[in-house]
């Protein structure tokens, strides 16, 4: 559903089910950050000013978090999980090597009995 705001630009309201795509939300927030009036943008898009303000705040928080030089909590958790998995695999490899050595000590490949 397209709305004409009186200018040469045609604004697009909410999509099916009253949901907007991530790109359209981003564009709305960028309009606010460029100085457009909150009420004007909210009316043009058919969303409440509170909803639009929430999008702006979430956008700014995510942008600030991306500037951090420390890994995010999710990255730290994934790193810890991978390190734990690597440790498990190294222990498993050492156990398998010890098992192979024990089997070879009891039955050396070079001293097999010939088949008859």
- Helix and strand pattern: EEHHHH
Structural class: mainly alpha
* Total DSSP E strands: 2
Please give the share of residues in helix. 55-70%
DSSP strand content: 5-15%
How many helices?
4
For the termini, the CA-CA separation is 88 Å
Topology overview:
Layout: E1 2-4, E2 10-12, H1 22-33, H2 38-45, H3 49-66, H4 73-106
Antiparallel strand pairs: 1-2
Helix pairs in contact: 1-3, 2-3
Notes on the protein architecture:
With 116 residues, this protein is mostly helical. Helices cover 62% and strands 5% of the residues. It is built from four helices and two strands; from the N terminus they run ββαααα. It has helices at residues 22-33, 38-45, 49-66, 73-106, and strands at 2-4, 10-12. It has a two-stranded antiparallel sheet with strand order 1-2. A hairpin with a 5-residue loop joins strand 1 and strand 2. It is rod-shaped and about 95 Å long. The N and C termini lie far apart (88 Å). The relative contact order is 0.07.
Question: Which terms summarize this structure?
Answer:
two-stranded antiparallel ribbon, single chain, 116 residues, 4 helices, 5% strand
